[in-house]
Amino acid sequence: MPVKNKLRKTNHRKKTRKIVLGSVTGSLIICVAIFSYWYFSFKTPNLPNPPLKDLAAQHGIMLGEQVALNRLSNKPYVNIVTSQFSFLTIDGDSSWFNFHPSPTTYNYTTADKLVVFAKAHNMPIEMHHLVWGDSISLPDWLKNGHYSSTQLLNIMHQYIGNVAGHYKSEVAVWSVVNEPFTRAQHINGLSDWWADNIGSESYIDDAFTWAHQADPNAKLIVNDFENETENGVSNAEYSFVKTALAKGVPIQGIGMEMHINAADPPSVSAMILNMQRFAAIGLPTYITEFDVNLNYVKGSNAYKNNLEAQITYNVVRACIESKSCISFDNFGISDKENLFKSLFNTNSHSYLFTSRYVPKSSYYSFREAWEQP
């Protein structure tokens, strides 16, 4: 090859290398800039003292927060969780789909990391849910296995023993069975996969017995939604658990999700009476997934914010004034973690902080409710 051609080729390679290196360097600079903006632009808010958890503790109530692993790299998120809440809830990462991906394997990787985080910050754990009849939360091998009712009960027994055994003495509260009564009545078109395939709700008794055997020191609750006042769902639940308790089934609390429809919120008095009804048969209330659904509310943002704040205040006051509500869990911190937005694809802001962690009106009403005697 002529010398001139060799030189041209060498120069071309050098130029190409410079261009590639320049592109990579430029991309890295952009990535660092984006991360820096994201990390430092969201600041931890300067919140008043005492923290919310201390205010709740004055009423003998534990205050919790659902925590997601993918949020723990967010400094304001972590600061709010650890400073304002006394326990954390693991939800979603603890489903059958995640824990039991095949008939012969279990995977606790994600939930284990959350447990480590909780221990590092001396926060007790509430874990959701050992049994849930939502087919989306169940692995395909289970749903498509054509198992008999006896086989399904054996699979459930093994699962509860494995999962509750894995976290024995690390979980303070287990949601053992989730949403059996709303799903039995097909609220919102929902159904209970377990009851439909086993043939009855009898599995509920078994699930609590097996959970108690696997983790005898944990509190065991049955969880549901639309059970915050006396109605068809809560009446069915009341009747079932009263009978179960008479048989010695170790149900130890009633979980009320409290996904409140802001277009038709319950009254404080109605919530109190229902909580006290369950307390009369020995079952305290755990509010497990509180948030406010603003999707069906029409009006200005100011109106919605004020309505959200009032509902938040009322639910806290019902918990306090019932004298039987011992745990209050928020289902998110900021409007980034919005259940209703993900479900309905609408702009429903339903938590205490904006997406940039600025306290909203609902934060101040939440705080005010705990400050009252």
Task: Give a summary of the structure in a few sentences.
By secondary structure, the protein is α/β, with parallel strands linked by helices. The chain has 15 helices and 9 strands. The protein has an 8-stranded parallel β-barrel with strand order 1-2-3-4-5-6-8-9, surrounded by 5 helices.
Description:
By secondary structure, the protein is of the alpha/beta class. The protein has 2 domains: 1-41; 44-371, Glycosidases (TIM Barrel), CATH 3.20.20.80. Helices cover 49% and strands 14% of the residues. It contains 15 helices and 9 strands. It has helices at residues 3-41, 52-57, 75-84, 96-99, 109-120, 140-143, 149-166, 180-184, 193-198, 203-214, 232-246, 268-279, 301-322, 339-344, 361-371; strands at residues 62-66, 87-90, 125-132, 173-178, 219-224, 253-256, 259-261, 285-293, 325-330. The protein has an 8-stranded parallel barrel with strand order 1-2-3-4-5-6-8-9, surrounded by 5 helices. Strand 7 (259-261), helix 12 (268-279) and strand 8 form a beta-alpha-beta unit. Helix 7 (149-166) runs parallel beside helix 10, helix 12 packs parallel to helix 13 and helix 13 packs parallel to helix 15 (361-371). The protein is globular.
